[in-house]
Write the structure tokens for this entry.
Amino acid sequence: MTRQLSLFGISTRIIHSSEPLVPILINAIKAQMDGLQDGDIIVIAESAVATAQGRVVSLSSVSPSEEARAYATQYSMDPALCELVLQESTEIVGGIPGFLLALVEETLLPNAGIDGSNAPIGHVVLLPEDPNGSAREIKCELEREFNVSLAVLIIDSRTHPMRYGCGGVAIGCDGIEAVVDERGRMDLFGNHLEVTRRAVADNIASAAELLMGEADEAVPLVIVRGTRGTVPPITNDSGIERISPDECLFMGILR
């Protein structure tokens, strides 16, 4: 049976710090789409969510500590940025020139996920607060406005070990299971799958990234339609779950 998946990129005007996000999304959807449908997955760039939360920081307002200055010297970075990375992370694992590898809520992130792109000159955008809760709130508001049942993903772009380029990952999720456990199923040759978990939300995030882009596209919102039959029903809607560092292959090697 042929299945068809459709993605629609929705452009918006520039979102300003601490500005309500959902009304901007609603206006853009109504201007560019015939509304929303049951089962649509709404994918939103984390920078838009963080900006609306007021998570935009002027580097000139940051006073670097001695620890931050030491990291800045070691890795050829702005001391103010190093200070923000220290404030946003629980541990600095290492670094290369221009980047610190930080542990943030049991996730490895370059520069603690702090991003200087799509921010005013001299400013950076921190990660959103409570991405799962933010996805839930946005979902409720959009469902109320359009009278449909939806899922919402908040996504970011991340690098992968030993690979050039960025791919999409979901950092907040509500309305679908982010990860589907495939253990116990059979493969094509009758072997039982023992470790496989399918990263449904991350796969959708990567597809949406193709429309969002990384530069001046001004597409912070993508509507994904047609996933029924490919995304299993919810049995454990717990958002994006973390694993402990001692369960992570990369952290095990680093430590």
